[in-house]
Design a protein that fits this description.
Layout (H helix, E strand, L loop, with lengths): L16 H8 L6 E3 L6 H6 L4 E5 L2 H12 L1 H14 L2 H8 L6 H14 L30 H8 L2 E5 L2 H5 L7 E4 L13 E3 L2 E3 L1 H16 L3 E7 L2 H7 L5 E9 L7 E9 L1
Parallel strand pairs: 1-2, 1-4, 2-3, 4-7
Antiparallel strand pairs: 5-6, 7-9, 8-9
The protein binds S-adenosylmethionine.
């Protein structure tokens, strides 16, 4: 069964999923992912039992309805594909459906056709990303039934990471991929949804992960390769530097490598 992420998501970990799979090995208990986003590692791992969560309610709603009725989501996306145009994009962007299925289809439609798959909301919580260059709403890689089958073995929750990590027990594996914030950068908060991920959230996260490990859960974390993050985790975890390839500004001469940190 082929399942790939159905969203383009900032900080997506598709590029690192093989390394995480290798580290994960067989999981006795549940796979727990408290910062789900596009779920790249979950989809690569295909765990038998999972607890998935994120603070973004629209994102979590999309997972929930795909789990229950993938055919209905597909039918609504087909309609968006048929009607897609610049004018239609902005009319859907301004529209707030009440039905959970329409909400999910709108979310996926906007994710696939907006500028760079970005998720950004204004102070009123309204999605405000302009239209992008891509017009494919349905992709050849989509397999909504396979996604639904896989999601049926997962509990999906909207909420803060701390409540999710608190549920980890012996035998579970927690994979935490938070927004990256480093200590020197207190003014440059990473903005996701309508909430900020501050340095105190990073401290709260490391405390929650240390407690989970003390209860017997295994823990894998990603973060910025920064001295403040190393300081935070150094008493309980080991580090591995990982490299993400990137092509900047479309120029092959600006090919670069970004360093990130695996905390294990
Ligand atoms: C780096 S992204 C995760 C990307 C994911 N690993 C992937 O492959 O697509 C971080 C996620 O954390 C979520 N998030 C931010 N603050 C959170 C919080 N306090 N509790 C739970 N999730 C949070 C964001 O909504 C975002 O989806």
């Amino acid at each position: 069964m082929e399942t790939t992420p159905f969203l383009k998501w900032a900080g997506g970990k598709r590029w690192l999923s093989q390394r995480i799979l290798d580290l994960a090995g067989p999981i006795e208990g549940r796979y727990i992912e408290p910062f789900l986003g596009g779920g790249a590692v979950f989809f690569a791992l295909k765990p038998e039992r999972a607890l998935l969560s994120d603070i973004n309610a629209e994102l979590i709603n999309a997972y929930m309805v795909i789990k229950v009725d993938p055919g209905r989501v597909y039918a609504l996306l087909k309609e968006h594909q048929f009607r897609h145009s610049k004018k239609y994009y902005y009319s859907i962007r301004d529209y707030q459906p009440r039905c959970e299925y329409r909400k999910a289809a709108r979310f996926i439609y906007l994710n696939r056709t907006c500028w760079n798959g970005l998720y950004r909301v204004n102070l009123k919580g309204q999605f405000n990303v302009p239209i992008g260059t891509k017009s494919a709403v349905l992709l050849p890689t989509d397999d909504w039934d396979a996604l639904s089958t896989l999601l049926r073995s997962a509990r999906i929750v909207c909420g803060d990471f701390e409540e999710t990590i608190a549920q980890a027990v012996e035998g579970d594996l927690v994979f935490a991929d938070p927004p990256y914030t480093v200590k020197h950068n207190l003014n440059g908060f990473i903005k996701y949804n309508d909430s900020l991920f501050s340095w105190s959230d990073q401290v709260r996260l490391s405390d929650a992960l240390v407690s989970a490990r003390n209860r017997g859960a295994r823990v894998i974390v990603t973060n910025a390769n920064h001295v403040s993050i190393k300081e935070l985790y150094k008493n309980h975890f080991q580090f591995e530097t990982v490299y993400r390839a990137s092509v900047l500004a479309g120029s092959p001469t600006h090919r670069g490598r970004f360093e990130e940190l695996l905390i294990i």
